[in-house]
């Protein structure tokens, strides 16, 4: 399996990251420390996870040189207006104790009015070009090495890239797991030189036990002497995505970093099992945010 993927900038992004969504205060720092000791060099975080300060402290204490780390963060929905972006980024940089991010993503294709309680900014949501232009400026200023998007479906990626971009999105971070494997999006992304990152790769805490109990997963696990989680995470990397498993449990953090290529027939068996049931998305805040539309609607 590839240890990393090359991006249009020439940077190489490690194929496995520690995900820190839902890793709480008082536990996330220890998770980062364990991960770095286990060999991880990629941490996937976000401003809204409210744990960047503790992640930053653990990074600093680790003594791992900055140029050996890959740090991703994400611009929250309330900061899409061009004048709000650099302050939001600076806040993240300060919390992480770093001068630059390796990757900065637009967290959702949804802009909220600043300081509002999820009040939609219709203009910036309909066309994120002004937001993107400011992110390009952050690249030119050296505060960010690569920029990308998250939770964009094909229609929304096309809507963004229809603008005259200086830098194309290098990454789209989306939900990918056994229940929602999105083969069309994966195929389209490959054809369009857009690397996908798999969040909630085990199905997030809601679906993780069901994922690990899938008969094909268990069968492959027995045949290869891997844990069910290792089978699923290996499948993600073999599909050509970056995988971002979240764990705060030391033994799982170590386990999730030891991935191997599955023999083709076993990979095919798992791919078929994942793609031959009706897809079920685990993460969709559209209703919670009272958007009045589904953010993943392909008809949009
Ligand atoms: P915990 O953090 O308590 O170890 P996802 O990455 O799909 O969002 O899944 C995260 C969930 O899966 C968390 O509840 C995490 O629990 C659990 N998890 C992570 N790695 C493993 C593993 N190797 N085996 C079993 N459960 C895991």
TrEMBL record:
<keyword id="KW-0812">Transmembrane</keyword>
<keyword id="KW-0560">Oxidoreductase</keyword>
<protein>
    <recommendedName>
        <fullName>NADP-dependent oxidoreductase domain-containing protein</fullName>
    </recommendedName>
</protein>
<keyword id="KW-1133">Transmembrane helix</keyword>
<dbReference type="GO" id="GO:0016616">
    <property type="term" value="F:oxidoreductase activity, acting on the CH-OH group of donors, NAD or NADP as acceptor"/>
</dbReference>
<keyword id="KW-0472">Membrane</keyword>
<feature type="domain" description="NADP-dependent oxidoreductase">
    <location>
        <begin position="17"/>
        <end position="260"/>
    </location>
</feature>
């Amino acid at each position: 399996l590839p240890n990393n993927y090359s991006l249009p900038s020439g940077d190489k992004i490690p194929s496995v990251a520690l995900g820190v969504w839902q890793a709480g205060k008082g536990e996330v720092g220890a998770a980062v420390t364990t991960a770095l000791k286990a060999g991880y060099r990629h941490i996937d975080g976000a401003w809204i996870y409210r744990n960047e300060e503790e992640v930053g402290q653990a990074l600093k204490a680790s003594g791992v040189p900055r140029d050996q780390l890959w740090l991703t963060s994400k611009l929250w929905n309330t900061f899409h207006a061009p004048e709000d972006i650099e302050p939001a980024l600076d806040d993240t940089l300060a919390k992480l104790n770093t001068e630059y991010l390796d990757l900065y993503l637009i967290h959702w294709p949804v802009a909220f009015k600043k300081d509002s309680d999820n009040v939609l900014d219709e203009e910036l949501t309909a066309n994120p070009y002004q937001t993107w232009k400011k992110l390009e400026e952050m690249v030119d200023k050296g505060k960010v090495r690569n920029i990308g998007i998250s939770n964009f479906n094909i229609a929304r990626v096309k809507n963004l890239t229809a603008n005259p971009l200086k830098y194309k999105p290098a990454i789209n971070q989306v939900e990918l797991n056994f229940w929602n494997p999105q083969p069309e999006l994966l195929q389209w992304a490959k054809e369009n030189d857009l690397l996908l990152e798999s969040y909630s790769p085990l199905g997030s805490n809601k679906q993780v036990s069901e994922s690990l109990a899938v008969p094909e997963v268990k069968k492959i696990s027995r045949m290869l002497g891997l844990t069910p989680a290792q089978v699923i995470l290996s499948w993600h990397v073999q599909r050509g995505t970056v995988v971002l498993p979240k764990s705060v449990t030391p033994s799982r953090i170590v386990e999730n970093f030891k991935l191997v290529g599955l023999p083709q027939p076993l990979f095919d068996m798992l791919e078929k099992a994942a793609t031959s049931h009706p897809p079920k998305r685990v993460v969709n805040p559209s209703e919670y945010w009272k958007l009045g539309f589904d953010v993943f609607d392909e008809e949009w």
